[in-house]
């Protein structure tokens, strides 16, 4: 299993009526790697996310998780096979405690965890600890600042121990992305799963990703390290402009 890429998107095409949202897109994320996906509005990033995690079935091509095709599976089935994701909009229960929010992420058919067991709570506490959130365990999620709630959402994704994680614009809307980013990097380092990061915030992409793919009008126009794509003329014209800082 370990010699297979965590995620492979192979020649994926998706059309909505006459709109070609994705055209022969291929990308790969190695086990443990953090890869970025960037591009202008309408480039096809959300469509790609949905092809990987959301149950959207491509018109052509394949999506493989550690070598197994998931392209025709439902979103819940993909989640059970180890695909985790966070959402652009927070999906927390404000009146429930942080700990409850994280344990309820296990309220899906999971292998080997009885609903009312101590193991569930232990796992939830470990997921909170990975992001430095132990002190908030008993606090209602709705009472916490936005940045902390975003970290709680990451804990919700991690408690299910995904083998591959999609991070959908994790720093959007944050007033202090640096503090959040520090906790995010720390948590990802400890948990070590493969990540595909969709993000418009370039310092975050530069900090987190060893490799970056650039989408424009449904096609991959460049890939490489952040430094490589940042000086690619097509990428500068389509997306980054002259200023990436
Ligand atoms: P953003 O950064 O604004 O979220 P994006 O890169 O995620 O953009 P997509 O949302 O994937 O881009 O959209 C790609 C193209 O497909 C766009 O032209 C969009 O209008 C179109 N599209 C996406 N979903 C649908 C749909 N369900 N029906 C019709 N067209 C769609």
Structural account:
By secondary structure, the chain is of the alpha/beta class. It has nine helices and ten strands. A hairpin with a 2-residue loop joins strand 1 (7-16) and strand 2. Helix 3 (98-104) packs parallel to helix 5 (146-158). The mean pLDDT is 89. It binds adenosine-5'-triphosphate. Adenosine-5'-triphosphate binds at residues 16, 19, 21, 39, 41-47.
Give the CATH level 1 class of the largest domain.
Alpha Beta
Given the C-alpha coordinates, what overall shape results?
Answer: globular
> What ligand species are in this complex?
adenosine-5'-triphosphate
For the sheet with most strands, the description reads: 6 strands, mixed
Q: Indicate the low-confidence ranges by residue numbers.
A: none
How much is the average pLDDT? 89
How are the strands ordered across the major sheet? Answer: 6-7-8-3-9-10
CATH superfamily of the largest domain: P-loop containing nucleotide triphosphate hydrolases
CATH hierarchy: architecture of the largest domain: 3-Layer(aba) Sandwich
Summary of the model, kept short:
By secondary structure, the protein is α/β, with parallel strands linked by helices. 33% of the residues lie in helices and 24% in strands.
What brief labels describe this structure?
single chain; Rossmann fold; alpha/beta; 10 strands; 9 helices; binds adenosine-5'-triphosphate; 2 domains; 245 residues
SSE blueprint and pairings:
Blueprint: E1 7-16, E2 19-29, E3 34-38, H1 45-52, E4 60-65, E5 68-69, H2 75-80, E6 83-85, H3 98-104, H4 118-130, H5 146-158, E7 164-168, H6 177-191, E8 194-198, H7 202-208, E9 211-216, E10 219-224, H8 226-230, H9 233-240
Parallel strand pairs: 3-8, 3-9, 6-7, 7-8
Antiparallel strand pairs: 1-2, 1-4, 4-5, 9-10
Helix pairs in contact: 3-5, 4-5, 5-6
The structure holds adenosine-5'-triphosphate.
């Amino acid at each position: 299993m370990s010699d297979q890429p965590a995620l492979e998107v192979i020649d994926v095409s998706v059309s909505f009526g006459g709109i070609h949202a994705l055209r022969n897109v291929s990308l790969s994320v190695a086990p443990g790697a953090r890869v970025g996906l960037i591009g202008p509005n309408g480039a096809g990033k959300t469509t790609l996310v949905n092809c990987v995690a959301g149950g959207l079935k491509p018109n052509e091509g394949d999506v493989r998780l550690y070598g197994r095709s998931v392209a025709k599976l439902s979103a819940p089935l993909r989640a059970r096979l180890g695909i985790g994701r966070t959402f652009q909009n927070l999906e927390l229960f404000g009146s429930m405690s942080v700990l409850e929010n994280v344990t309820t992420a296990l309220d899906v058919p999971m292998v080997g965890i009885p609903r009312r067991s101590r193991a569930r709570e232990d796992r939830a506490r470990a997921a909170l600890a990975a992001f430095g959130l132990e002190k908030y365990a008993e606090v209602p999620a709705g009472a916490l600042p936005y940045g902390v709630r975003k970290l709680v959402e990451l804990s919700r994704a991690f408690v299910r121990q995904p083998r591959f994680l999609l991070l959908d614009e994790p720093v959007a809307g944050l007033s202090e992305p640096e503090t959040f980013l520090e906790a995010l990097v720390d948590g990802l380092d400890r948990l070590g799963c493969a990540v595909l990061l969709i993000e418009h915030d370039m310092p975050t992409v530069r900090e987190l990703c060893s490799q970056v793919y650039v989408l424009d009008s449904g096609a991959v126009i460049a890939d490489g390290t952040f430094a490589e794509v940042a000086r690619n003329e097509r990428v500068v014209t389509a997306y980054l402009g002259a200023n990436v800082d």
